[in-house]
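The methods section describes the discrete structure representation at length, but only in general terms. The central task, working out the structure tokens from the amino acid sequence alone, is never made concrete. Nothing conveys this as quickly as seeing an actual entry. For illustration, here is how one protein appears when written out as sequence plus structure tokens:
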Amino acid sequence: MISSRTRAVVLMLPLVFSLAAFPQTLSSQLKKAVADPQAPAGSTDPLGRETPAGTVFGFLQAAQAGNFRTAAQYLQFRTSTREAEREDTAAKLKTVIDRGFQGSLKNISSQPEGNVQPGVAADRQVLGLLSAGDVEVQLDLVRTNDPSSGRIWLIAQDTVERLPELYDQLQARQIEKEMPSALVTNALLGIPLWQWLAMLLALPLAALVGWLLVRVIAAPRAAWAKYRHQAQRKPWTPLSGPLWLLFAVVVHGLAVSYLRLPLLQRHYYVRISVVMLIVAATWLALRIVSRAMRRLRDRAIAMGRKGTGSLILLGQRVLNLVLIIISVLGILGSLGFNLTTALAGLGIGGLAVAFAAQKTLENLFGGVSLLGDEVIRVGDVCRIGERVGTVEDISLRSTRLRTVERTEMSIPNGSLATMNLENLTRRDKFLFNGKLALRYETSADQLRYVLAEIRRMFYEHPKVETASARVRFLEFGESALNLEFFSYILTVDNGEFTAIREDLLLRIMDIVTNSGAAFAFPSQTLYMARDQGMDTAKTEAAVATVQRWREEKHLPFPDFAPADISEFRGSIAYPQPDSAVGNHK
């Protein structure tokens, strides 16, 4: 078993790798910060100041690289300001922004016109506040005309002129005074080494605090189980992993917030943290959906609704897919991608996929139809075409059957929804139907004996449905006297049915044997006899009768007259006077 400490280390690896990759990510972003990635084609300003985002990121990139001469070109000065004073002001602005900026770089516009802000002039942008001590200054951008670059954005002069006051309010950190100067003065990608060490040391602290919070949440449940004398579950429930990651990321973010990272580095750290939070939240949502759907499915199966249980399983898979798509879109949005374009592309791509995957969608809706109507369930024995098998799984695309030959057969749900499907599991009784062929030498009384004894046997048998049981003399066949028997066997188990059928067939054989008759075989019999000719007396009597009909104009062709039919109806005694039914009446 994996210990909780090992699991904690494993689950923290994504955050560690994200922080390890942070310098490379930051470096690549800084290389393209001067020219805004969404700047319009045909840019004329070499410093990328045509958009508010280009100005802010360009200044931060240049200042972080220590190129304050370039950084000063993003600020609006009076024409009389000396070059050295401009560079010193740019350096002070970098310090003030890193330590006292209140706002978000994510909301800075990447369009030349900027964002529409109520109460703000069209040629100005309010980015946030610069705070130091009791002094608060609004960080503004202003759009001006440059003779060589055209319309560009600069950090407004009224903000620049109050920088000395802000800078004087900033006090050196006591913790930095107590640290070796090498950790404070040396930096990696704009972050002092002591801050890198602090972020790494905060990882195990965040992991420990997250673990303790999970234990605190699980404590009431464990106490209740102990009070009810139930088996206590381990604290690491299926939800504890994502909860731990969620708490650890939040705690690490709170710890890093006290370090006051430089603004640009803080911006990318927040992006990484948001990505980790989305991953943790998605993981937690998937676990919650899995547990909830499993309980609903178990409850449906316990109530005998296996089809509903299979439909819940299908719904769980679809819901998991939706959660993952939402998570990916959230991650792309947190990384700065334009979701409007992504969603539009997703819609167009969805239409293309829908046309290209018609069969897949047909199978999906076919599976939903099968499960919703509960035509079949997992575990049912079905006949599909000429094949018989047991349903093992109903997935998004197909249904799998285990045939009687023990092979696995997969049928697309779309095709299955249009096929003739016979569910053998749901029958309430078995049909027992067949023919009995006796030799032509069998006399009428022998035939009566066989019919009566088989009927009596059906009525006496406890597994034969009396109301539906019947045995009748069917026809004169080519080589046999054919009898038909029909009844229902009162069982739903196929093995028991075969045993009952065997018992009935053996009893029928005994009845035929006891009657002195025999079963007929497909054969032809040639009789050798002297031709006696036709009976002359009977022939003359028949001809005379027909002649009398002609004379009386009562020739019954093409049929008897309606009055004669009405007179004939019911004149034959049925059943025969010596039959059991006739005597009973």
Summary: The longest helix spans residues 263-302. The radius of gyration is 47 Å. DSSP finds 21 helices and 14 strands in the chain. Residues 536-584 form one domain.
